[in-house]
């Protein structure tokens, strides 16, 4: 006996390929990242992520119960990858180095890292105050991790070079990060108006100004 025509013509439901939990999680985070290459964080929705991953929403909700859970996991992953990116550009030997050269080179490297992956850094440089309530804690956490890494480097520099003695490491780190984040945000959002050469020239001038134009003895 043949099937009724309506049943025969109905498209078969697509089922997502079974994946181990960690692979599924990575797949969904990759899909969310891909969606955010074309949208802002507040525009992210579960339907778009599921469609990008080629799965049904029930599969997505099995891994991430809420949109906030998904965003928190994505920000944590991208923060870890960002720290790896930054660590590769940071100086490892500060002995005998001119603090002006080190500071300006570090800020320039930070901007370069941001330009190498604009989507990642657009997420991480988003201010918590401008984010939806459900994302603010995750953004604060990701920024805190970057701050801790930067302050450790600043403290090392303060110990090594006596000309930095008496400078508050927390305030100096905040100043450098504020400048770095501002420049990276401009470079990512409007590269035509703020090309890398313009930013590098500004960095070299402002860092020398911040530390009083100190030069090696």
Automatic annotation (TrEMBL):
Region (Disordered): 1-20
Pfam family, one: TetR_N
Keywords: DNA-binding, Transcription, Transcription regulation
MF (Gene Ontology): DNA-binding transcription factor activity; transcription cis-regulatory region binding
UniProt key word Nucleus: no
Cited SUPFAM superfamilies: Homeodomain-like (SSF46689)
Biased composition annotated in UniProt, kind: Basic and acidic residues: 1-10
Domain HTH tetR-type: start-end pairs: 22-82
Ranges annotated as DNA-binding: 45-64
The protein, known as: TetR family transcriptional regulator
């Amino acid at each position: 006996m043949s099937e009724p025509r309506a049943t025969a013509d109905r498209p078969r439901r697509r089922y997502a390929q079974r994946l181990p939990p960690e692979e599924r999680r990575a797949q969904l985070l990759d899909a969310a990242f891909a969606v955010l290459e074309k949208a802002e964080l507040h525009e992210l929705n579960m339907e778009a992520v599921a469609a990008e991953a080629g799965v049904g929403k029930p599969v997505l909700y099995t891994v991430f119960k809420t949109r906030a859970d998904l965003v928190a996991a994505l920000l944590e992953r991208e923060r870890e990858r960002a720290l790896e990116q930054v660590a590769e550009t940071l100086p490892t030997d500060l002995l005998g180095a001119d603090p002006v050269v080190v500071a300006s080179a570090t800020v320039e490297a930070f901007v370069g890292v941001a330009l190498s992956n604009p989507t990642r850094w657009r997420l991480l440089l988003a201010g918590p105050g401008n984010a939806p309530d459900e994302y603010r804690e995750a953004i604060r956490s990701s920024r805190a991790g970057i701050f801790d890494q930067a302050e450790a480097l600043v403290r090392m520099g303060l110990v090594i070079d006596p000309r930095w003695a008496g400078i508050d490491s927390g305030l100096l780190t905040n100043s450098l990060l504020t400048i770095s984040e501002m420049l990276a945000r401009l470079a990512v959002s409007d590269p035509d108006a703020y090309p890398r050469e313009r930013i590098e020239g500004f960095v070299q001038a402002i860092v020398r100004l911040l530390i009083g134009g100190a030069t090696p003895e």
